[in-house]
Amino acid sequence: MTVVTDDGPDTAPPSADSRRSVLRLAAVLGVLGVALLATALVWQPATDAPRSRALYQFASEAWPLLVLASATLFGYETYLHRRLVAELIRFAGPRIVEALLPQETLHSFLANIYGPNEANRDVVAGVLGGEGRHPAGGDLAISTHTTVGYELQSLDHENYHLTSTISYSFRKNVTANRFVIFATCDALLRDLISSSCRLPLFDMWFVLDASLFEHSTDAVLPSVQIGISYRDKDDERREADLTPIRPQEVKFDRWPEYLTFFREATGPQPRLNARDHLSDLRIFEYDLRSIAHDEVRSIERLVVRLTTLQRTDDGFCYWQAPYPCYVERLTFDAKGLAADDRRPWEFRAVPFSFRSSTAHARWLPAEQLGDLDIRTWWLRGHGAALLWRAGDPAKNTIADSTTKRSGPA
User: Fold this and answer.
1) Which of 226, 258, 252 is nearest to 240 (CA)?
2) Average model confidence (pLDDT) for the chain?
3) Distance between CA 371 and CA 373 in Å, rounded?
């Protein structure tokens, strides 16, 4: 449905109206100047008529000023104005943009393009990956080099371990020394957390089965390893390899310090009460200073590795970007996922983003799954899923017989 405003599609912007008004004024002044010039050339008043002599004197002295004003206005509006604005933007534009708050700037832009709508907040949060309340995005984490690795290893025919290794390299050093993990089994919280987190470095676990939430979360915690590249107090670059870190669980009365929807309404969503989510939300805080060799002033690179217990019959696993990430490569290693020998698994990688790779658009055996070269930006909600299904035994039989016939005698 197309919505037409009262202004109509033909309403000219204020800048165009202003420009036309200035050109009209220049034309009027030019006509008056020419008229006075013609009067001064043609009219010769009598010497005994003081009023006529005064008018003649006025015409003789005023026409150059009017013509000059007309030419100046016309030249400025048609040529100089554009050049001056372009030069001003070229010299001062970047500094002005850096001084603006990303959230307010983007809100204003979307209101002009999309129209006023509470849902614009979701677009702002998706593009910025956070609140954007600091100039130049000082409170945002934007990863310009991101790699994702998933390894599936069967425990038995019903369960498997999913080990993920995610590497983020940030555009600007993130001023933080804490990393927070939000674990939830509530779909509403899952959708709100990314846009309401007050800390730049975070991740989220979503557990599909609410009955396994507590057990699954406790089982993952010991496997978490974190590595960082950081700047110390002397602005020297240092590194800390992947190391297990013991987290501190955040008590529910401190949840509003981490998530804004526990303090205020989020768009159309009213403020939530932390007590109502004691059974479906847990927050863990990791102190990155515990693995550093010195004081941590800012983070350049973050690597997170963890292992989760999953059910094989779910038929899929996936990864979503927690904040804007330029994803270079995504790897799925499913050779360790056990299956019935007569019906081995077939796999298919499915990105969901602006531009999806078609390299794995068909079902493949685990041995043929290669890296996905993404090389584009993924925003919150973008990601990739690995799907699997039992293969066709008839195809496998035909393939085996073909291999035998084509083999060496």
Assistant:
1) 226
2) 81
3) 6
